[in-house]
Specification:
Two copies of one chain form a homodimer.
Chain A: E1 4-8, H1 13-24, E2 28-35, H2 42-53, E3 58-63, H3 97-112, E4 116-118, H4 134-147, H5 149-152, E5 158-160, H6 168-177, H7 201-213
Parallel strand pairs in A: 1-2, 1-4, 2-3, 4-5
Helix pairs in contact in A: 1-6, 6-7
C-alpha cells in the first residue's frame, strides 16, 4: 500500500499540526495550499515556512477564485465579527470551501498515486462550520471512492482527520510534542499589517488555548 | 423554492443541451465554466457563445489549474488516443474533475441562493468515466447537503443530470428541439488550429451521432 499522502496546509495552527502528525505516522507528505481569493495571503507564506520546517516532500500552491462569487466574510466585503464567538454558522463560513479543497486534494492524490488525504478539520472549537463535521467527511470519502479511477478499481482512498475530536489545547500540545513551531503559523481571519487582530473568533480561540497551556 | 440554478458549461455538445433543458424547465440559469489547464482553451470561447445564445442570466469563467499535477491526456503531456474507443477508463479521464467542478458549482450556488446544479454527465456513451455515473452523482448530492449551511439548515440542494440515461443521438435531438445551435459547440479533445481532429473518442462519438441523424 502506498504511504504517500496529500496534506491540506493552510498556514494555520491546525493544519501545521496535521502535517506533523502525518509525518509522525510515516507518510510521505505532499502539501497542498490555496490562494483562494482570501482577504490575506500571508497565510500562504506561513504555509510555505511550515512545509519546509516540517520537511514536506513537496508543496504545491494552487490558485482558485472563491471571491468570484463571495458569500463569506473571508472572500467578500463583509466585516469579520470581532465581538466574541456566537451561536450558529458564522459569516466567516466560506460556501463549500472544504468540499472544494478536498476535491482538489483528491485529484492531486490520484495523479501522484496517493491513497491518503489529511485535513485539519476540528468539530470541537469550530462546531459552526458544517464542512468540519464527521458526517461530512465520511460522506466525502464515499464520494471520493466513487469518483475516481483508483476507487473504482478497488483501492480505497481515505480522508484522515486526526484533529476532529481534539480541543484546541490538545491540538497544540500534540503539535509541540512533535516539534511544531507555532510562531510560523497564523490563525487570524483579518490580520492588520501582517499582525493578528486579537479580536476575531480564530484569534480568541487560539489565544485562549495558548494562555491555558502557558 | 428558488428556481435559480448553476449550470456547468464546458462549450461541448452535452452541456449546451443541459443549459437548454434547464432553461426550458424555467430555471434562471447561471453558467459556470473553467479554465482548468486543459490543452485547448477554445472550448471557453464556445461556452461564451452558447451562454449568450441560450440566454444564461450570467456566465462566470473561473480559473483552476489541474495541470499542476496532470495525470490525464487532457492536462499533461500524454497523447490523446486516436485509434477508436476502447474498453476501460480512458487516459482522457482527468482525476476528480467532476468532483472539482461540482464542488465549485456548489460554492457558487450557495453564495447566490441557488439550490439546483445542472451537469451534463452521460453514462451511455462515456461509461469509462467513473465520475459520470449515477452512483457518483447521488453520493455527491448527499455530500453537498452535509457540506453546506443551506443543506444543514434544511433546504435541499439537487444535482440535476438530465442527460444521464440518454444516447448521444437522443441528446442532439433534444437540443435541436430546444433551439441549440450545435455549430457553436466543440467536443474534440485535441483540436488542431481550432478544428476538430475527427479521430479522438469525442469526435468519433459526436460525428457518428450526427451522421445517423442526418
Amino acid at each position: 500500500m502506498s504511504k504517500r499522502a496529500v496534506v491540506l496546509l493552510s498556514g494555520g495552527l491546525d493544519s501545521a499540526t496535521v502535517l506533523a502528525i502525518a509525518n509522525h505516522q510515516k507518510y510521505t507528505c505532499h502539501a497542498l495550499s490555496f490562494h483562494y481569493g482570501q482577504r490575506h495571503d500571508g497565510e500562504i507564506v506561513c504555509a510555505q515556512k511550515v512545509a519546509k520546517h516540517l520537511g514536506a516532500a513537496s508543496h504545491v500552491v494552487t490558485t482558485i477564485d472563491l471571491s468570484a462569487w463571495g458569500g463569506s466574510a473571508l472572500t467578500a466585503d463583509i466585516d469579520v465579527p470581532k465581538d466574541g464567538c456566537s451561536d450558529g454558522i458564522p459569516v466567516t463560513y466560506v460556501p463549500a470551501r472544504n468540499t472544494i479543497f478536498l476535491s482538489h486534494a483528491l485529484g492531486y492524490a490520484e495523479a501522484i498515486g496517493a491513497l491518503n488525504i489529511f485535513i485539519g478539520v476540528n468539530a470541537v472549537d469550530y462546531s459552526g462550520y458544517p464542512d468540519c463535521r464527521r458526517e461530512f467527511i465520511e460522506s466525502f470519502e464515499k464520494t471520493a471512492n466513487l469518483a475516481t479511477k483508483v476507487g473504482v478499481e478497488g483501492s480505497r482512498i481515505r480522508i484522515h482527520t486526526p484533529l476532529i475530536d481534539m480541543t484546541k489545547i490538545e491540538i497544540i500540545k500534540s503539535g509541540l510534542g512533535l516539534g511544531v513551531d507555532y510562531s510560523m503559523t497564523q490563525s487570524c481571519y483579518d490580520p492588520q499589517n501582517g499582525m493578528p487582530c486579537k479580536q476575531c473568533d480564530a484569534c480568541r480561540i487560539r489565544d485562549a488555548a495558548f494562555a491555558e497551556i502557558e
